[in-house]
Amino acid sequence: MQPLISCNHVHYSYHTLQGETPALNDIHFQVNEGEFVSIVGPSGCGKSTLLSLLCGLNEPESGTICFKGKPIGQQNRCRIGYMLQHDHLFEWRSVWKNILLGLEIQKKVTEDAILEAEHLLKLYGLYPFKNARPSQLSGGMRQRAALIRTLLLHPDLLLLDEPFSALDYQTRLKVSDDIGGIIRNSGKTAILVTHDLSEAVSLGDRAIVLTPLPAGIQKTIPIDFAKELSPLERRNTNVFKDYFNQIWKELNPHEP
């Protein structure tokens, strides 16, 4: 089966007036359709840089990144949705206008798209706030609105760059559970970058552990839970701690 996205021996460096800093070193992995992959690593190791390459915002210095067997480019880049650390909802637009923004930019505001937008707002509990401003929403509600905005464009792949990091811990648990469930129920493929190892385990089908800068792949850890378990339910299983400890030891090899 052809992978949805493949990263083939990718190298990348940051360039400044002071010189060159290697950021990614021989990154090589594949992601199949319907898979949820977590990427973890030390702070500043290049995780977000990797996402920028995966969605075509930057190009590798060597190696290739392919989407459905073809190099990432203008034609297939629009099939990739990118959810950032902050929701980037515009305060001068209502929730409704915010979730339609991507469709407006792509000139795809059709009758069917409007019906789908209303359906998603109802499905994820935001319909009563359709005409509200973003400042009237909780942090979790804002993230759900941002995800709906992304899903309305029907991306084949979702890139998630620490999308829950700005939330307090209790809200973060609830929203990651909600959004993890939404992504799985929609059958989307997702790649999550996170510093939170519990999040990586509770959401992912496998975890890719990166080394310190320049980032290479230290280890890939398969994560196997019963498919019917939600992210929150995964945290209550006996094997959850085992997966957490595996990743922790890879990130902290010198600790006892």
Uncertain segments of ≥5 residues (pLDDT<50)? none
Distance between the termini: 41 Å
Strand order of the largest sheet: 6-7-8-3-9-10
Using the CA coordinates, give the radius of gyration.
19 Å
Helix content: 25-40%
Number of DSSP helical runs: 10
Q: Quick check: average pLDDT?
A: 88
Envelope shape: globular
Structural class: alpha/beta
Q: Main beta sheet: strand number and arrangement?
A: 6 strands, mixed
How are helices and strands ordered from N to C?
EEEHEEHEHHHHEHEHEEHH
Estimated share of beta-strand residues:
15-25%
Count of β-strands: 10
Molecular structure report:
There is one protein chain. By secondary structure, the chain is an alpha/beta fold. The chain has helices at 47-54, 74-77, 95-99, 101-105, 111-123, 139-151, 169-186, 197-203, 231-234, 238-251, and strands at 5-16, 19-31, 36-40, 62-67, 70-71, 80-83, 157-161, 189-193, 206-210, 217-222. The strands form 2 sheets. Strands 6-7-8-3-9-10 form a 6-stranded mixed β-sheet, sandwiched between helices. Strands 2-1-4-5 form a 4-stranded antiparallel β-sheet, covered by helices on one side.
Summarize the structure.
With 256 residues, this protein is of the alpha/beta class. 36% of the residues lie in helices and 25% in strands. α6 (139-151) packs parallel to α7 and α8 (197-203) packs across α10.
Write the layout of secondary structure elements.
Elements: E1 5-16, E2 19-31, E3 36-40, H1 47-54, E4 62-67, E5 70-71, H2 74-77, E6 80-83, H3 95-99, H4 101-105, H5 111-123, H6 139-151, E7 157-161, H7 169-186, E8 189-193, H8 197-203, E9 206-210, E10 217-222, H9 231-234, H10 238-251
Parallel strand pairs: 3-8, 3-9, 6-7, 7-8
Antiparallel strand pairs: 1-2, 1-4, 4-5, 9-10
Helix pairs in contact: 6-7, 8-10
